[in-house]
Design a protein that fits this description.
Blueprint: E1 4-9, H1 15-24, E2 28-34, H2 38-48, E3 52-53, H3 57-62, E4 68-71, H4 78-87, E5 91-95, H5 102-115, E6 119-122, H6 129-139, E7 146-154, H7 167-170, H8 174-189, E8 195-203, E9 233-240, E10 245-251, E11 260-267, E12 271-275, E13 279-284, E14 287-291, H9 302-319, H10 327-346, E15 350-351
Parallel strand pairs: 1-2, 1-4, 2-3, 4-5, 5-6, 7-10
Antiparallel strand pairs: 7-11, 8-9, 8-15, 9-10, 11-12, 12-13, 13-14
This protein binds nicotinamide-adenine-dinucleotide.
The site of nicotinamide-adenine-dinucleotide has 27 residues, from loops.
Length: 354
């Protein structure tokens, strides 16, 4: 089988995990890289052994050797690049969030349907080992019907700055950046029920707190703290058509004692904690049991999960199979995220027609 020729578009911070994973995948070839910063693209090409450093996007989309792209650019470019790539006959892996808005995501979905190519959304947590172990228990009915989930991803000081902090380029703050992951992984494990209503709140109370010293955090490649037009905290209650509900809170900055990630699911036969450590809760012989799976990584392993995400994408492309993170799922998550922002802005519950 010949190798899949891939180009990574956008060679900033997260591209390292795409490039490093393609490099380790024996069925993939890092054919090219492209970034508006040619200097950055060249450095990454050298580091990861890309054959071509493209100098413009047209050349990427017109290259007959190319088969797939990873889109790792600012959120405001995802829709345009994804649609152009699909129209050029390429398989597409686009980083999360799928787009800036629900409307944009529908346009991508339409292009994906026409193109009949593999389309994968960068829902990396779906590829994590702890998620996959838990999913087997869920699919086997060990938790019964999951009727409630609760997820938190709160950073004390962690606004990545640059474009992340500019709503025109990112579409929002911690909700669209961090919330997208934890909402998606809960929704995926809950069996992907359609959203019925959402209530959300967003707060802009603390700014980016770039005054804080001696605490490191994830930063955009072009870190800059001079502009901040995104929320610093968001919370939401999401209700699904089957009556199940999901409560979420996320922050870029918050006066909390430590960074926290927690993902919990509660069902009629059992419960589970995916983060911070996989744990299954059940009942046998009138006794409550906390079950501790014996696996290497009970928590999300960044490097391994990206490797598994890229492996999944490469396999799907080479075998022409649907990804486990298809475009429709990205669209439903965009609907939820947009609903939360709208609810917060208008101070009302958003109810969807089903
Ligand atoms: N899956 C995850 O856990 C995860 C984590 C971080 C970021 N992300 C996503 O990855 C994407 C990139 O984030 P990042 O942290 O790498 O940001 P970054 O700012 O570090 O890198 C983005 C790169 O895109 C380039 N770029 C911007 N506009 C471009 C254009 N029009 N054409 C070509 N290149 C362009 C920039 O020059 C920069 O090098 C975002 O969508 C973000 O949400 C995902």
């Amino acid at each position: 089988m010949s190798k899949l020729n891939v180009c990574v578009i956008g060679t900033g911070s997260i591209s390292d995990f795409h490039l490093g994973s393609y490099q380790k995948n024996k069925d993939a070839q890092i054919y090219g890289v492209f970034d508006v910063s040619e200097e950055r693209a060249k450095a990454k090409a050298e580091q990861f052994g890309a054959k071509v450093v493209f100098s413009n996007l047209e050349d990427v989309f017109n290259d007959p050797e190319l088969q797939a792209v990873s889109i790792c650019t600012w959120n405001n470019t995802h829709a345009e690049f994804a649609i152009r790539a699909l129209e050029s006959g390429l398989h597409v892996l686009v980083e999360k969030p799928l787009a800036m808005t629900y409307e944009e995501s529908l346009k991508i979905q339409e292009a994906a349907k026409k193109a009949n190519k593999v389309f994968q959304v960068g829902f990396v947590r779906r590829f994590a080992t702890n998620t996959n172990v838990l999913k087997r228990f869920v699919d086997a009915g060990k938790l019964g019907d999951i009727y409630y989930a609760k997820a938190t991803c709160t950073r004390r000081v962690g606004n990545p700055g640059g474009w992340f902090a500019d709503v025109e380029k990112s579409g929002g703050g911690p909700l669209i950046d961090l919330g997208v992951h934890i909402i998606d992984v809960c929704w995926y494990l809950m069996g992907k029920p359609r959203v019925k209503k959402v209530t959300g709140h967003t707060y802009k109370q603390l700014g980016n707190r770039s005054n804080i010293e001696n605490l490191s955090f994830y930063k955009a490649a072009d870190y800059d703290a001079s502009k901040n037009t995104v929320e610093d905290l968001a919370n939401a209650l999401i209700t699904f058509e089957n009556g199940a509900s999901l409560m979420v809170d996320v922050s870029f900055t918050l006066h909390t004692a430590k960074d926290e990630i927690s993902v919990k699911l509660f069902g009629t036969k059992g419960g589970a904690e995916l983060e911070p450590e996989l744990k299954i809760v059940t009942e046998e012989f009138n006794t409550v049991l906390n079950v501790h799976p014996q696996i290497n990584d009970l928590t999300f392993n960044f490097v391994e999960s990206f490797q598994q995400e890229i492996n999944g994408f490469v396999n799907a492309c080479l075998e022409n199979k649907e990804s486990i993170a298809p475009v429709e799922d990205g669209v439903e998550i965009m609907k939820i995220l947009e609903g939360i922002y709208l609810s917060a802005k208008e101070g009302r519950e958003i109810v969807y027609e089903l």
